[in-house]
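Final report, section 2: Outcomes. Of the targets proposed, Glutamate--tRNA ligase is the one most frequently requested by collaborating groups, and we therefore present its record in full.
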Amino acid sequence: MTAEVVTRFAPSPTGFLHIGGARTALFNWLYARGRGGKFLLRIEDTDRARSTPEATTAILQGMAWLGLDHDGEIVSQFDNAPRHAEVALDLLAQGKAYKCFATQDDISAYRDAAKAEGKSTLYHSPWRDAEADSHPDAPYVVRIKAPQEGTTVIRDEVQGDVTFQNNTLDDMVLLRSDGTPVYMLAVVVDDHDMGVTHVIRGDDHLNNAARQMMIYNAMGWDVPVWAHIPLIHGDDGKKLSKRHGALGAQEYQVMGYPAAGMRNYLARLGWSHGDDEFFTDAQALEWFDLNGIRKSPAQFDLKKLGNICGQHIASSGDAALRRECEAYLAAANLPALTPQQSDGLEQALYCLKERAKTLPELIEKAHFVLTSRPVTPDEKAIKNLDNVSRGMLNELTPQLQNASWDKETLEEVMNGFAAAKDTKFGKLAGPLRAALAGRAVTPSVYDMMLVLGRDETLARLSDAAG
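The predicted structure is given below as tokens.
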């Protein structure tokens, strides 16, 4: 029987959920969920000076927006420090680690001398093979005994086999002189204790894997499947940074990108399934596999993000899209919709969602149903309401009074009225948009009339006609 897949996302709570971290979380979530496995969350909060509760909250909110739910309780790495130390002391007892009494001055002097002689500055502690009875009564660190010959091979699902010469690996510190465990030890112990089977993370951790393997091997633990994914670059080919624009997942929520579109786009950053660009969550869960991840860095492209998000908005159900618009307004600290506005928005979505790439664009298109009388035309719309136009609206209103309120009948009335005036409907459209929406660019006039209904439409036309 195949063992259950267990993945994890392990962010440091020193800031927001970075877009690269969001993609790492997504890849882990897709891999586990697509195989009926577990997706765990660990907060790597051992850096007490930089870790903050606010950052943890921001990370959790970013994950919640993206719909990346985790299994079980959140693990705090800091809380597990006694367990990490226990493993280091176990290795010490087994003779696989040792007490090193070298001071920082000793280490610096060693490296300066090696550098002067043109030798490797990799530190070789004289305490590695010292007898216990020669130990001074002084502070010490606990170091693991690194293999000194041969190679360490990381069998990586993305990078392939990556070989490290063991003579380039130092006797890594496990416990500092104050007894606190180092990050490299904590990661391995936590992953082992959490039952993590697949470590999917950025390829900036690839070198760490060789050092972490020493702990797995020394403890006789199963080594997880490694998958080191390439970083995300900006459009200039350089590592994604603030100069490329927004970096936090929640910033994209506040900018009004829909979560499903963001998931789709992030999944395509460095992973592919044939030529498929647009896909649903169900398809992503079915298709996602480690062999689809490319070795080369992915490039973040706002235009592509907008295109994919536009397709997700267009294909969303109206009720779900209404909820997402309301969540966007809350996240962006914008005024909430009234129940009446929210109902109107949902009724109008069928004629709004085809061309919007973000939720703010969608809400702007819905202005006609979100505003109330008297409708105030903006600067461009007011130009369409001259005396001639107002006169036409005044004549048109009675003809609509008793018309059947369906698109076909409304088109007949409008086109008939335009023909009687020896003009085209296009000449009527501008004043109608200004009267109904107060905007020069709107959804179809007929769609607005149908959404607003007879009474509201006629009232707005009367207002505009003056």
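Residues 317-367 form one domain.
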